[in-house]
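Why should sequence recovery work at all? Because a backbone constrains its sequence more than one might expect. Tight turns favour small or flexible residues, buried strands favour hydrophobic ones, and helices have their own preferences. The token representation captures these environments compactly. In the example below, the structure is given first.
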């Protein structure tokens, strides 16, 4: 979708929001899949209510893009634009055991920045790609920890009230790869409350998690992490593996040889290929185990 109305573009510029025309979302997603549209890059949280009012008044469909690491975007010209927060400087502001972090910050970098100041707890998240905002929205977790456990406060743009709000950690429910944030709310910043640990101890924990991840996940390949959530008490990866589906492909969309819940773009996979691989694997698992796997990957259809 292209924004061409000059009056609108002038108003967007007036809000200090950058308009980028005709970007390919394949360059903004870790899967390397996605069609073309316009992007609006927000530099100041204060511009958001005005910007969204402009888009709503003109009925322009839009989606909030984070780090694109858990996202499968449709092919071709997309019928909506994307809105993204620019990465701020400085990254993390520390105050005692609190870390104030912008939603656009990189998750892994936040973990190491906090480690340098003897704040730990999030070692398991070190290899999880994406932004703090994306991690918050889906309550990212690995190796026995989840980000929700450390959230003291979240600043967000509420789609319902059209205002910037602050929620306390105890007003939010964080479950396995799920949170109570309404889908159209936009994460803006978070305050994490982290336990004190020595830098050495944190780095040791990070090293162990990195090794485990390297040994079991296809890190160098284009993927969106795990495609399916684990059903209660089971592992989607193990079930897909047991069905002999490692290497199974549709076009260039392929079940990883290393971890069967990672589907990789092994060349020039389209969204159509990836969606059909996901549907096929889901059907096979359901037929064999009677379990309907739920997507962890978020799909934005064209
Ligand atoms: N397994 C297989 N074959 C496979 C993959 C796994 O037999 O192809 C077996 C493993 O040997 C192990 C069990 O299944 O016995 C569980 O595997 P793993 O430890 O890799 O954990 P997982 O349940 O597949 C979850 C998260 C990962 C997270 C790891 C480590 C989900 C959907 N996945 O994977 O998160 O990194 O634990 O904590 O919850 C993600 O969410 O994108 C993600 C990568």
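From this structural description, the recovered sequence reads:
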């Amino acid at each position: 979708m292209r924004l061409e109305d000059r009056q609108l573009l002038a108003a967007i510029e007036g809000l200090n929001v950058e308009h980028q025309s005709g970007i390919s979302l394949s360059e903004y997603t870790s899967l390397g899949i996605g069609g073309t549209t316009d992007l609006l890059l927000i530099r100041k949280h204060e511009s958001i209510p005005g910007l969204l009012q402009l888009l709503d008044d003109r009925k322009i469909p839009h989606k909030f893009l984070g780090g694109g690491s858990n996202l499968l975007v449709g092919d071709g010209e997309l019928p909506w634009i994307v809105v993204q927060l620019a990465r701020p400087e400085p990254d993390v502001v520390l105050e005692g055991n609190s870390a104030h972090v912008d939603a656009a910050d990189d998750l892994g970098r936040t973990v190491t920045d906090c480690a340098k100041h003897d704040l730990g707890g999030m070692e398991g998240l070190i290899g999880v790609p994406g932004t703090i905002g994306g991690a918050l929205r889906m309550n990212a977790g690995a190796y026995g920890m989840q980000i929700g456990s450390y959230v003291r406060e979240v600043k967000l743009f509420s789609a319902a009230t059209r205002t910037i709000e602050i929620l306390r950690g105890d007003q939010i429910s964080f479950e396995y790869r799920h949170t109570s944030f309404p889908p159209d709310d936009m994460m803006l910043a978070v305050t994490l409350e982290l336990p004190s640990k020595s830098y050495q101890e944190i780095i040791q924990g990070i090293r162990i998690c990195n090794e485990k991840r390297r040994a079991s996940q296809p890190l160098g390949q284009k993927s969106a992490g795990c495609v399916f959530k684990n059903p209660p008490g089971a592992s989607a990866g193990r079930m897909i593996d047991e069905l002999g589906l490692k290497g199974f492909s549709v076009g260039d969309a392929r079940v990883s040889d290393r971890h069967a819940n990672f589907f990789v773009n092994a060349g020039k996979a389209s969204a159509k290929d990836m969606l059909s691989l996901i549907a096929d694997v889901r059907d096979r698992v359901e037929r064999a185990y009677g379990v309907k796997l739920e997507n962890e990957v978020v799909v934005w259809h064209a």
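A few observations help interpret the result. The helical segments are 6-14, 48-57, 107-116, 132-138, 199-216, 236-242, 271-289.
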